[in-house]
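Ticket reopened. Same input as before:
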Amino acid sequence: MPSIAVENIIKKYGSKKEPVTALDDVSLEVSKGELFGVIGPDGAGKTSLFRILTTLLLADSGTATVDGFDVVKQYKEIRNRIGYMPGKFSLYQDLTVEENLRFFATIFNTSIQENYELIKEIYVQIEPFKDRRAGKLSGGMKQKLALCCALIHRPSVLFLDEPTTGVDAVSRKEFWEMLKALKQQGISILVSTPYMDEAELCDRVALIQSGKIMSIDMPQHIIQKFTKTMWSVRSAEMVRLLNDLQHYSNTEKCYAFGEFHHLVLKNESGGKDEILQYLQHLAHHEIELHLAQPNIEDCFIELMGNNKS
Amino acid sequence: MTETVITADKLTKKFGDFIATNEISFEVKKGEIFGFLGANGAGKTTAMRMFCGLLMPSSGAASVAGFDVYKQTEQIKKSIGYMSQRFSLYEDLTVKENIRFYAGIYGMSRSAIKEKSVLLLNQLNLSGEVNTLVKSLPLGWKQKLAFSVAIFHEPKIVFLDEPTGGVDPITRREFWNLIYQAAERGITIFVTTHYMDEAEYCNRVSIMVDGKIEALDTPRNLKKTYAAKSMDEVFLQLVRGAKRGE
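Engineering reply: fixed in the latest deploy. New output:
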């Protein structure tokens, strides 16, 4: 039995005249103990999906189960078994760290002691501040407390809606290390993020845009499906280089990518020499050109292009 | 000599015993894209608020667009633009109303606003949406419009606080194209971001750790100095040692 099963979920908002489709026929399955990522920008439908699965929102059509229970008919069962960390900080700001944790433990008929082992590694980092009110914590500490509160009843499925949004690169890395450790405990995790680079830290991912899932697979498989040859190009004048490459007759696609531009050609036959000639003709200097390994962000851009046309 | 538009000399802000910004010193030139990086809680927002004339420093000196951050805060506010992911446009006003509101605040004349609005809306392909409420625009359009509104009055400097958070990868790049265009027109860009690939798009980058500027150079030189393959690595090396949280 999968931990999460979603079949043909549709959710629309707005008026009948001008409906906004948040989820457009979404289906996916998450296996027991899997770390599954929902990757997409704001407005892609991630939060709607999370709210439906956590029984806080009804879909217009389609079905979904969590831990084998139906999200509509058996919502009470589901609520006992899941942990949910919403995108917006939702703990009690006026309660202390410890009070928040005890509150959530009590609600689920358990105690901090009973499941302390599960949260120990995370909780020790905020324990020195256990008498501080939650509202006075730093962003990173709030995030850790919220994760502890979502875990204190030892849920079988954990829902994390954009836990790393607005968080710096170092704290993001630490957070993903915590998730890996939780996965070892057999907890299934559904996590959403707008950061494409986090896809590679998941077992499997769904790339989502405008309510539609564009691809579901292991990250390395999604990358393997990118079969076009991609070049990394750099010169002394990066802005002019981008413009020149975008106007090159053999360019299918060219966009900035960190310190290089990524370039996909329409026709590979002329290859490297032709690009070099073209750029030298335009007086570019310090040109560097080599084959590039695409990553999830390249795949996302490619898939977005396919969906538009 | 290119004009200097921001100078900071040992600029410091204390809140009680806590030194949020600790003697930071640097200069930013006209038309430069300056990346202002750091971990959460490193003191970036405090520094930005001082540069925007919103917060009085505790000690040190700084000038923005030639105006003093202690005495000439009103002149500073007139010479800058500001945009962040959290605060940008009024959701319950239309596209046109937002433009008129912001341009009006900066004292532009009605005719100038009218004339420039047409150009802007054409450039952003938003001509058909003038009377649309901003809240019903897709996020990507909103962010691009917010940036264009922030530089509508041709400020000398625009401060961008995580402008691309949560935006899809194509829109993120379109947004940076707007940044480049503005920089080419001579507008100085002062930008914070958590996307390390965006650090590469800046002319120079500073990295703040625990209130101090620990590194400041071009992305290329920073990578050389720290023997790192990417800006991500540079950032991790510097920030891993940070003592304090947000």
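The first strand of chain A starts at residue 4 and ends at 14. Chain A has ten helices and 14 strands. Please confirm and we'll close it.
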